[in-house]
Amino acid sequence: MAGEGALQFYRELPKVELHAHLNGSISTATMKKLMARKPHLDIHNDMTMINKGQKRTLEECFQMFKIIHQITDTAEDILLVTKDVIKEFAADGVKYLELRSTPRDTPAGLTKRAYVETVLEGIKQCKEEGLDIDVGFLLAIDRRGGPTAAKETVKLAEDFFCSSNELVLGLDLSGDPTVGHGKDFMEPLDKARQSGLKLALHLSEVSNTNFTVSLLF
Ligand SMILES: [Zn+2]
Fold first, then answer.
1. Does residue 69 sit within a domain?
2. Which positions are annotated as active-site residues?
3. What pLDDT score does 217 carry?
4. What is the pLDDT along the chain (217 residues), one digit of tens a residue?
5. Total domains present in the chain
6. Interval between CA 42 and ligand 1 midpoint (Å)
7. Which residues does UniProt assign to the signal peptide (predicted)?
8. Is 156 part of any domain?
9. Any idea what the CATH number is for the domain that residue 148 is in?
C-alpha cells in the first residue's frame, strides 16, 4: 500500500490520541484565523510552527509556546482553538482524545477557572454538533509555577472533576524539565489522587522527537 491509498487507509483507521497538547495541536489554518484577529502582534507562521523535518531546541519550543499564548489570550480564542483541534482530530479518524493544557490567567482578563470552563464548553459544543469523538481533559501543572500554583490547579481540577460530567479526567505534571524538582509536587499530586483524579507524568520532550513519559495512573 502506498501513496494516497495508504493515507486514506490510515486516516479512516479508528485511533486513540492519549497525549495532545491543546496549544501544540493548533493547525496552520487555525493559526491563520488567530493571527488575523490580532494583526497588531505581527506574528508570522515561522514563529509558531514546526514543519515536518524541522528541528527546534527545547528552549526554542518554550519560546514558541510563549508566542502562541499571546495569540490565544481570550475566551473566544480558546474556544476556537479547542473546537478546531477536536474537529481536526475527528477528521483524522481519532475516536478517543485526551487533551491537556495548562490553565492560564491572561493579560486580556481570562482567569484560570474561565480558561478551563472555555475548554470544557468547546468539548461540549463539539459533542452537541454530533462529532464522532469522545474527548477528555487533563489540567496541566506547569512546574515553573512551583508547588503553590500546583495546589491551586489541583483545587481547580477537583472542582471540575465533580461538576464536569466526567470531562475532566485528571492532572498532568509538565513544563520545562530543567526547572525545579519533581518531588516538590508529590504533596499536591498525592492529594489529587486521593480525590480520584488520574495523573499523567510529563517528564521530558524535545523538539519533534518525542521523549515524553506520559503515564496515566
Ligand atoms: Zn507532551
1. no
2. 205
3. 45
4. 567 899 999 999 999 999 999 998 999 899 989 989 888 877 776 666 666 677 777 677 777 778 888 889 999 999 999 999 999 999 999 999 999 999 999 999 999 999 999 999 999 999 999 999 999 999 999 988 999 999 999 999 999 999 988 899 999 998 877 888 888 999 999 999 999 999 998 776 544 344 444 444 4
5. 1
6. 27
7. none
8. yes
9. 3.20.20.140
| Exposed e or buried b per residue across 166-188, where buried means at least 16 C-beta atoms within 10 angstroms of its C-beta | ebbbbbbbbbebeebeeeebeeb
How many A from CA of 62 to the centre of ligand 1?
Answer: 12
SS3 content of the chain, % helix, strand, coil (to 5): 50, 20, 35
- pLDDT of the residue at 14: 97
Cβ atoms < 10 Å from Cβ of 29? 9
89: closest CA among 56, 118, 122? 122
Can you give the residue range of the structural domain that contains 164?
A: 16-25+74-201
Rounded CA-CA distance 141/187 in Å is 13
Is residue 94 within 8 A of residue 111, CB to CB? The reply is no
Structure-block grid coordinates of residue 217: 495512573
- Whether 128 is in a domain gets the answer yes
Residue with cell 519560546: 63
| Ligand 1 centroid, distance to 1 Cα (angstroms) | 31
